Amino acid sequence: MSRASRGVHIGPPRLKIAIQAIVWLAKSGNMISSAMIASQVDSHATFIRRVMQSLNNAGIVESKGGREGGYFLRKSSAEITIGDIYEAISSVSNDAEIKVDCDCGEAGEQLDVEQFDVELEKILQEAELKTIEYLRSYTIAQLMDRVQFL
């Protein structure tokens, strides 16, 4: 299977949904309910509300409660970068840490797990910063110019 056909998975799983939701909000230019966003991005309204809460906390969208409520963009699509959305979603998506004990070395040879975790975390943080920097070079408006709406 080629790399292109598998898809690329960068960032938390909800990132793609968040970007799609922002695109639909930008396309509509109006307030949209979580149920309508969910139907547009093929998800559940409850999940969308959690995603939108992260985007609201980051100042990307605004929400209005009540029966006639929904979400709308706080900024134009030309001012919102994919990096902004990545950061908003990543700030709350830290899944539970998985701790694996491994005695994988030969006798007398063990990995300093604490040091390993610190050094790997530094590398991963640098990779994330570079990813965000790159994603900030694309706005929602630019993405919308590259896709067709059916």
Offer a quick outline of the entry.
With 150 residues, this protein is mainly α. 52% of the residues lie in helices and 5% in strands.
Note the topology.
Elements: H1 3-6, H2 15-28, H3 34-41, H4 45-57, E1 61-64, E2 70-73, H5 82-90, H6 113-135, H7 140-146
Antiparallel strand pairs: 1-2
Protein name: Transcriptional regulator
InterPro entries: TR_Rrf2-type_CS, Tscrpt_reg_Rrf2, WH-like_DNA-bd_sf, WH_DNA-bd_sf
GO molecular function: DNA-binding transcription factor activity
Entry keywords:
150 residues; Arc Repressor Mutant, subunit A; two-stranded antiparallel sheet; elongated; disordered N terminus
Describe the protein.
This protein has a single domain (3-146), classed as Orthogonal Bundle (Arc Repressor Mutant, subunit A). It is built from 7 helices and 2 strands; from the N terminus they run H-H-H-H-E-E-H-H-H. The chain has helices spanning 3-6, 15-28, 34-41, 45-57, 82-90, 113-135, 140-146, and strands at 61-64, 70-73. Strand 1 (61-64) and strand 2 (70-73) form a beta hairpin. Helix 2 (15-28) packs across helix 7 (140-146). The chain is elongated, with a radius of gyration of 19 Å. Mean pLDDT is 83; it is low at 1-5 and 93-107.
Mean pLDDT figure: 83
Order of helices and strands: HHHHEEHHH
- Number of beta strands: 2
Strand content: 5-15%
Category from helices, strands and their pairing? mainly alpha
Organism: Paenibacillus terrae (strain HPL-003)
Pfam family, one: Rrf2
Protein name: Transcriptional regulator
GO molecular function: DNA-binding transcription factor activity
